[in-house]
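Recall the central idea of this unit: under ordinary conditions, the amino acid sequence of a chain determines the structure it adopts. In this exercise we apply that idea directly, starting from the sequence alone.
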Amino acid sequence: MPQPTSRSRDTPLLTLTADTLVAVDFSPRTRGGTRAKGPYRRLFDLPGARAFTAGNLIARLPMGMFSVSAVVMIAGTRGSYALAGAVTATGLAATAVVAPWTARLVDRYGQARVALPATVFAVLGSLALLLCVHHGAPDWTLFASYAATATTPNTGGMSRARWAHLLKGDAEALHTANSFEQAADELCFMLGPVLAAFLCGTFFPEAGTLVGAVLLLAGVALFTAQRSTEPPAARRSSGRAPFRAPGMRPLLAVCLATGAVFGSMEVVTIAFADARGHRSAAGAVLALQAAGSCAAGLVYGALRPAGASARSRLPWCLAAMTALMVLPLLAAGLTGSLLLLAGALLVAGMATAPTMVTTMTLVQRYTPGDRLNEGMTLAVTGLLGGIACGSAAGGWTVERVSAAAGYGVPVAAAAAALLVSLVVLAPPGSRNRFPFGPSNRSTESRAPH
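Accordingly, the structure predicted from this sequence is:
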């Protein structure tokens, strides 16, 4: 039977053999049928997403390296852990003051125009610290040099701001993006200290700081070069300051208490491992906690939050964190086994990422769209303040009571965060049990986050 000479490749070929009509379909086939793309694949199929993520991950890795490198470098050459701790604490305090202002400039003038010069200044501070330590400069120069690194931009916040810009109006995709970012944070803080310790121990004491500075500058340069995904700068913001936004200050209180969980857990775990004669294993044990959080973050991002909004999920996440933080306390207090403690920390860490993802989602919701970097940097500042307080409380408990009893500090801090979410964030007479106040974005969808 004659057929048309021009046809679509999806049109079946019809032919007649004897008394049978045969249809041949030449349309393309895929094995197993068509599979829908997973949430993370859809995320990174967005134009420019892979490029800016690669640069950001390179820039974010040194965040887990600098403090460990500074402590090893200063203590190794000056013979004083007290001096090393004081220098890093000064840098932490300077960052808490300077970081929100740097983020405000990023929102106002754009990521590329502010982040790269700020990074150059911070890298010069790191190099100055390295030279001062190497050449035996007076102690005060170490404080001044490390304080100069406070201009380091919040690379995680800038990446989250790009996702919020690219995924505006798509709450499910933004949930996946925030989960990925939290998992990336955990991965960097898991690998960073290990890499820093390896470099400082294998080569020379200043190697960790030097490599971290190079990675930071290269990563930020690559990240800011991706201009197509950069959120537009807002010279004049129409929204109120993030700190004054409804619901923001209680969220910062939650961040402060959550940071205390992280800070106390680190100090107490190091002390517990040291008391058992395995101080060198403390890093690996803490890495298991970060690994549990990283895995939970990726799973949490692949799931679709059913029904409940982020504001009602947060208390449940904090309740899970409080309950799971009891596991290390029981493992340390009842068994005294470092191996069982490692398993308990792996499980306990699984509540961290969902809690932080939900918290950051709420920070994004209640921050004006043109001041996202400032809002998320305020949250990070709260976490840093909590880490400092938790470290001090954990150290005091270890010194005055015992290392095992020190695991009661993260439990108390998690319970405090839960209490804030249940009491401070719930106005009397509200119909919603866990309201956070009205959103600070007039144009934002009210869909659950």
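The longest helix spans residues 171-202.
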